[in-house]
């Protein structure tokens, strides 16, 4: 057996420990790289799938517009032949002869019966009087001089003219007229030959064509954007959705026969494909909502996300296990250095390990403070439900101690104190059920008096109440969250769902807090061994991961219940899982314009104080175009995060001032924005460039050609941004 001197043995042990630590760091770095790769790959696949769905929908619109325009053109050709045939049948006859000719009526009636889409064939003289109709014989007294299909032909020959939709005076069904001018040998106006086409024929035919979900088919005139027919039809058959003529005219200036364009209809953005009907000034317009791709994209992305999540969790577990093994090897190597010492030295080592565990436990206790958890839950509940006041009432598990309350409006603390909440919301305290009362002013107590009296100036009252219990794992009630508002019916099923998710998080957090306190008690009473303490710490870590998974589920449910929650969902979940996917998640938003003040307010509002003096926003109203909103929003997010961690917002006296100004530029509007921090810790230039700095200097410079100046002043960071917001086509200049 070979023996080494003590100094040489220690040196070998130190080398083995350093190698183990180096392997652990390398394993951790490789694991983080794998996590970033999985997230970036998932983001790229989701983005590409979205683009494919959008392209497929646009192709379907173009194909449907082409097919329906071709069908309509053929229908109009047959209609034109029908009119010419009717004109030939009456050739050489006076109007009195035409009106009295039953054989002629039988001929045009046979033509009308042969064509299913024609409701009636009409012959009118120069005064608009109806002389012959295929609907009945003899001809009823009807005059069409007020119809546009008649007046348009009076001034000059319009050829085949398609009139606006009407309610037939004879047939009483929604139709539109197609007319041709009748004139004598001298060219004078002699009347019109026309047919009325039933809108139901188009609806029956269009309903059989495969169209994207939420599609709308419109037959319209190109000259005045008059809608002739629309599918799905309106309830009364004639009140069609209006056409955005300015957007349609702009598209026609680009290409007059067929194309794709965006427009606003009934307050929502749509994308449509148009196609000219033959050589006539008529167009088929097939459109659908701009966000029609969302549902299939979400279904597909959820499947991809499940696989990515499994791979991510597996990679994180393997990385954590490998890193822990290397650190354990390093710890064993360090322990070997002390094996030559006496048992007293081993006892000192165990004591030092217990001190480390106690310090770690103190940090966890600070992060899982019960009062701060309750305050955060009440604050979040007020924000989620838009309540004017909220309170936490302790349950039986907490000995029914005094409660914590917060009022967003002056006077509501007294209004809460005036109510017997435990009696009004008894099922929440005794049975653990959610209680929602739309108007407690009409609810009466045991003595017949209402719970809430009439409000007086300066003394508001609670009308709407919602009480949601926080249930522990053992079935007991830790407490009840109660929120109130002075208006009736302010809380709804959505409020219940949001608060259910919030209380599930609160329950886990409070349970973790209880477990932490129990662990501290066990450490003080039994002085468990290091292995038992490690198991407890791993259990706490496991419960924190469960809390994060619950947060992710709540955000997913919120995204499915709202129209524009995707930004919130993507950014929130992405920041919990990894900061590496900030760019890919923010660029998944589909914005047209975004208010600069709203972006700043959303990011900085959580850090403002009650008096609103920590955050100062100064500048005119600015609407950011789509190509600028995402990078500028990311930059503001990174500046806010940096200020909250290391800058002015990390201290209670810190302040952030954001000012901006605009001026006209050749290509749009020049935006000059200044971010200034003060009152925080002393600032010095960083030794390495982080993600935020790369975002400000590279992404903004590449995408917006922006000039960014960062001044790391000792009193606080100052960032100046200078860029030109370019005008987007067909949307006017940016504000």
TrEMBL record:
EC class: transferase
Q: Which UniProt keywords apply?
A: ATP-binding, Kinase, Membrane, Nucleotide-binding, Phosphoprotein, Transferase, Transmembrane, Transmembrane helix
- Pfam families documented for this protein: GAF_2 (PF13185), HWE_HK (PF07536)
* Kinase found in the keyword field: yes
Q: Where is the Signal transduction histidine kinase HWE region domain?
A: 539-621
**The keyword Transcription is assigned to this record:** no
Give the residue spans that cross the bilayer: 26-47
Q: Identify the residues that the record assigns to the GAF domain, covering every copy.
A: 369-520
> Which transformation does this protein catalyse, written as a reaction?
ATP + protein L-histidine = ADP + protein N-phospho-L-histidine
SUPFAM superfamilies in the record, alphabetically? GAF domain-like
Q: Can you provide one Gene Ontology molecular function annotated for this UniProt record?
A: protein histidine kinase activity
What Enzyme Commission number(s) does the record list for this chain? Answer: 2.7.13.3
Q: Which PANTHER family match?
A: ETHYLENE RESPONSE SENSOR PROTEIN, TWO-COMPONENT SYSTEM SENSOR PROTEIN
- What name appears for this protein in its UniProt entry? histidine kinase
User: Which taxonomic lineage does the organism of this UniProt entry have?
Assistant: Bacteria, Pseudomonadati, Pseudomonadota, Alphaproteobacteria, Hyphomicrobiales
């Amino acid at each position: 057996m070979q023996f080494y001197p003590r100094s040489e043995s220690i040196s070998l042990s130190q080398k083995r420990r350093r190698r183990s630590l180096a392997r652990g760091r390398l394993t951790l770095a490789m694991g983080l790289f794998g996590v970033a790769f999985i997230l970036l790959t998932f983001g790229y696949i989701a983005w590409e799938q979205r683009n494919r769905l959008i392209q497929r929908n646009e192709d379907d619109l173009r194909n449907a517009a082409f097919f329906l325009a071709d069908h309509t053109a053929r229908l109009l050709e047959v209609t034109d032949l029908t009119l010419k045939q009717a004109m030939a049948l009456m050739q050489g006859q006076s109007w009195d002869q035409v009106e009295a000719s039953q054989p002629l009526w039988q001929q045009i009636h046979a033509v009308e019966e042969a064509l299913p889409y024609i409701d009636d064939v009409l012959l009118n003289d120069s005064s608009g009087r109806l002389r012959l109709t295929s609907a009945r014989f003899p001809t009823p007294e009807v005059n069409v001089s007020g119809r546009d299909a008649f007046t348009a032909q009076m001034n000059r020959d319009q050829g085949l003219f398609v009139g606006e939709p009407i309610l037939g005076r004879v047939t009483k069904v929604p139709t539109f007229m197609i007319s041709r001018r009748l004139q004598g040998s001298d060219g004078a106006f002699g009347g019109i030959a026309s047919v009325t086409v039933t809108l139901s024929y188009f609806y029956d035919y269009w309903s059989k064509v495969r169209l994207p979900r939420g599609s709308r088919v419109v037959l319209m005139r190109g000259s005045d954007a008059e809608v002739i027919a629309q599918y799905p039809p309106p309830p009364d058959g004639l009140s069609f959705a209006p056409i955005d003529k300015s957007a349609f005219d702009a598209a026609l200036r680009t290409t007059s026969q067929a194309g794709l364009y965006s427009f606003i209809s009934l307050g929502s953005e749509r994308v449509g494909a148009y196609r000219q009907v033959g050589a006539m000034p008529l167009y088929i317009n097939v459109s659908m909502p701009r966000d029609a791709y969302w549902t299939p994209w979400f279904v597909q992305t959820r499947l991809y996300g499940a696989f990515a999540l499994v791979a991510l969790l597996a990679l994180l577990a393997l990385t954590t296990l490998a890193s822990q093994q290397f650190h354990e090897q390093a710890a064993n190597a360090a322990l070997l250095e002390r094996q030559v010492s006496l048992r007293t030295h081993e006892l000192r080592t165990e004591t030092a390990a217990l001190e480390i565990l106690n310090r770690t436990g103190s940090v966890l206790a600070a992060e899982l403070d019960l009062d701060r958890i309750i305050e955060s839950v009440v604050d979040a509940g007020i924000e989620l439900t838009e309540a004017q006041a909220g309170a936490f009432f302790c349950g039986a598990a907490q000995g029914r101690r005094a409660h914590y309350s917060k009022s967003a409006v002056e006077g509501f603390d007294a209004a809460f104190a005036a109510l017997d909440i435990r009696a009004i919301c008894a099922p929440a305290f005794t049975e653990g059920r959610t209680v929602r009362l739309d108007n407690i002013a009409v609810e009466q107590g045991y003595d017949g008096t209402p719970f809430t009296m009439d409000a007086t100036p300066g003394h508001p009252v609670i009308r709407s109440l919602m009480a949601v219990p926080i249930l522990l794992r053992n079935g007991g009630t830790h407490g009840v969250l109660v929120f109130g508002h002075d208006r009736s019916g302010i809380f709804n099923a959505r409020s219940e769902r949001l608060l259910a998710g919030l209380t599930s998080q609160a329950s886990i957090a409070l349970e973790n807090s209880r477990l932490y306190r129990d662990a501290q008690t066990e450490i003080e009473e039994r002085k468990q061994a290091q292995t038992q303490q490690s198991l407890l710490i791993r259990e706490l870590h496991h419960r924190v991961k469960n809390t994060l998974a619950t947060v992710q589920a709540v955000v997913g449910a919120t995204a499915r219940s709202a129209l524009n929650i995707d930004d919130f969902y993507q950014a929130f979940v992405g920041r919990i899982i990894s900061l590496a996917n900030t760019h890919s998640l923010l660029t998944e938003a589909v914005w047209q314009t975004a208010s600069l003040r709203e972006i700043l307010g959303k990011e900085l509002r959580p850090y403002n104080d009650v008096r609103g003096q920590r955050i100062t926003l100064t500048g005119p109203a600015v609407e950011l175009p789509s190509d600028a909103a995402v990078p500028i929003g990311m930059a503001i997010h990174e500046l806010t995060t940096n200020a909250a961690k290391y800058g002015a917002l990390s201290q209670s006296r810190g302040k952030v001032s954001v000012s901006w100004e605009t001026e006209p530029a050749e290509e749009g509007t020049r935006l000059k924005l200044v971010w200034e921090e003060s009152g925080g810790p002393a600032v010095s230039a960083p030794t390495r460039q982080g993600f935020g700095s790369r975002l400000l200097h590279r992404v903004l410079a590449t995408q917006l050609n922006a000039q960014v100046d960062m001044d790391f002043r000792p009193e606080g960071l100052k960032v100046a941004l200078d860029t030109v917001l370019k005008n987007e086509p067909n949307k006017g200049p940016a504000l």
